[in-house]
Structures are given as C-alpha cells and as structure tokens.
Amino acid sequence: MHIKTIDLRVIAFLRRIYLPSARVAVFVVYFWFGLLKLIDLSPATPLAAALTEKTIGLAHFGLAFKILAVYECVVGILFLFPKLTRIVIPLLALHLIIVCSPLLLVPHEAWTKLLTPTLEGQYIIKNVVIAALAIGIAAQTQPLQAKKVRSH
User: Fold this and answer.
1) How are the residues of the chain apportioned to helix, strand and coil, as percentages rounded to the nearest 5?
2) Do 65 and 117 meet the contact criterion of CB atoms below 8 Å apart?
C-alpha cells in the first residue's frame, strides 16, 4: 500500500472518531471531577474554598461546592448528546470563567511567582485544552436551517 493511501485512510479514520472521542473526553473530565467534588474527594477543595472565601463568603462554601459539582456532572453528561451542543457550550464557557478565576482572584493559591503556577494553577491552566476541544466540537455543529418562506 502506498504511503499516501495510508495517510488518507488514517486521516479519514481520525475524522470519523474525532467528534465522538472529543465528546467522551469532555464527559470523562467533567463528570469525574464533579463526582470527586460530590463525594468529598476532590483535590481542588482548598482552592475552591479560598475562592469562595474571597467572593461569596466561606459560609456558603458547602452549598456552592455541591452546586458546582452537580453542574460539572451535568455539563459532562450534556456533551454526550450532539443535539445539546448549543446548550452545553455556553454552560461550559460560564464554568470555565468561574474555575479559571482563581488565577486572578486568589493568586497566592495559583502562582508561586510570576508565570510559575502551583500544582493548583496548573490544574486551572489545563482548561485551555478543554476550551480548545469544546471549540472543535462546536465547530462541527450543523448550522441552523432557515425556515423557507412560501410566497403566495
């Protein structure tokens, strides 16, 4: 078999599996991390507590953290359904704004020094990859069809 034929077949295969594998990847990350929060095993708990204390007050941490956990699980599940892409992408964007905010709002938790993230900061920065993956998923969405207007 010729190298160009192999190349074309590999590319065709990757194009076929990209969207389903991207959706499953986002599901796994979101559902897993949300579940860890729900069962009080998340390594992000101290970071989330620091953010909550800085924003809405530590007294609200328990409820806010559970809401975030459920929200993450729901976002993960929604990614498994292609027809819900238009709904889940804005939900993901809102989530990313919230979970990336510690980089600015509680910098002592996210940075050791200029441009040197803590492990928690690295945990946040990995969201750049999730955002890019979500853009790729959204880019594959079929455009809405305009309704045809009948003329009389």
Assistant:
1) 75, 5, 20
2) no
